[in-house]
Amino acid sequence: MIRYASLYIDDKKESISFYTQHLDFTVFKNVMFGDYEQWWILKKKEQQEISLILIWNEEENPDRSTLILNTNDCILEYCRLKDNGFRQLSTPLYSTLGMSFYFYDPAGNKIVVIEERAYNDPQI
Amino acid sequence: METYFKRLNNNNSLYQETKKYSHVGYQNHDLTLKFVFSGVQNYIMNKKELMVHPDCFLMINKGTDFESKIHSQDYVQSLSISFDPKFIHDINRTLQNSTNYLLEHPVDDHTPDFHFPETLLPLKSNLLFNLHHIRRFVKNRVDDDHLLEEYLHHTYINYLEIFNHDVLLAEERLESLKQHTREEVIKRLNLAKDFIYCNYNQQIGLKEIAENSFLSVNHLLRTFKQAFEETPHQFLTKIRLKRANYLIKNTAFPINEIVPAVGFECASSFIRLYRSYFNCTPAKFRKANYYEKN
User: pLDDT tens digits for A62-73?
Assistant: First the structure.
């Protein structure tokens, strides 16, 4: 299931201000993803099921895209890909959004597989 | 009665049992995490009795003598995850040393004994989420060593995160004390938490909590708040609310019977506290969860 569309950005302040002021997005969450990457998750009131993520990375070339795929079980998916001979996987890592790992497609686009976790839900 | 045992290639293992009655005693072979998914399991060790509920877990070190007791009208489903000392040593080396050091010293035959505090800790965060997946694999009798090895690797890392957050960082938060004094205070504060975890349904006050943790009432109040950023009373209320919530979700007991069963004296204050903690009334939560499930 595809849940996010993402874009790399260069100037954080300018980009966030553009999307919030001109395109009516609101910043839903700011997440540190690993040591070098920061995500701003933006939502529109009328379209809660799909979000836009603005990605700022200290090291990577910003002309690549990232596709974020949702999963119910990150480690199961990680092991399935590994058992199928896929070797270029990052190790699963934790963030405030949940658990995820990533790999690159042949064109160099980054594919992130994420299991979102409601850490702050008192019912869990 | 239903049991499941799986030893993996790296000698880590999982053992699940579902029983109404059991009483065994033995020496623990490997460092083990003890969980229950439903009901309560009692452990007697080091002259104290600890009760594991679904919202907490217990770590038992290698070599500890203990008794385990289940005596319940309903089935108690429990899970033990044990870690081989070599596995723990390898992970700890990887976490504590730089990549360069590990490349220069790829093998370390010396396997030291690890000793963690044998106290109840909250089942939360990534450990809770990963354990739900493990429970599903055990239920479905998944026989995939690679997958289970990966999950148990994460379980140990998740345990270290909780240990780090709830024991080491709590210890660091204690003000103006020498290291060995801080260690002793946190040990006694953990006795206070264990006492609350196991006696939440009794009419306990600060005096009883302090007596059972070998601290004065004032010392307990001051250091508990410093270390855990909540008072003993707030911690007790949280445990009572969580356990009431578990009973509302998983049993048919009427709410007016659940209130005194978890230690609350007054139904109206229970409803007020419940609503403020869970953003929902107990009756609405029962309607949305229990009746839908059954």
Answer: 677 787 888 899
Mean pLDDT across chain B: 93
The string of pLDDT tens digits covering residues B85-141 is 999 998 988 888 788 887 887 777 676 777 899 999 999 999 999 999 999 999 999
pTM summary value: 0.87
User: What is the least distance, in Å, from the CA of B176 to any CA of chain A?
Assistant: 32
Q: Provide the CATH number for the domain around residue A25.
A: 3.10.180.10
**Domain containing residue A81:** 2-116
CATH superfamily of B2-168: Jelly Rolls (2.60.120.10)
Q: Which sign, positive or negative, has the C-alpha torsion B166, B172, B177, B182?
A: positive
ipTM of the complex: 0.88
B-interface mutation test, from A71, A78, A94, most B Cβ less than 10 A away: A94
A122 domain-assigned: no
Verify whether the Cβ–Cβ distance B126 to A83 is below 8 Å: no
Amino acid making up residue A49 = E
Residues of B in contact with A119 (CB under 8 A): 125
Closest CA in chain B for residue A72: B133
Answer for the pair B43, B49: CB distance below 8 angstroms, yes or no. Answer: yes
Element (H, E) at A30: strand A26-33
Task: State the CATH architecture for B235-293.
Answer: Orthogonal Bundle (1.10)
Under 8 Å between Cβ of B37 and B135 = yes
CATH number for region B176-229 = 1.10.10
For residues A43 and B207, give the distance between their C-alpha atoms in angstroms, rounded to a whole number: 51
The letter for the amino acid at A110 is K
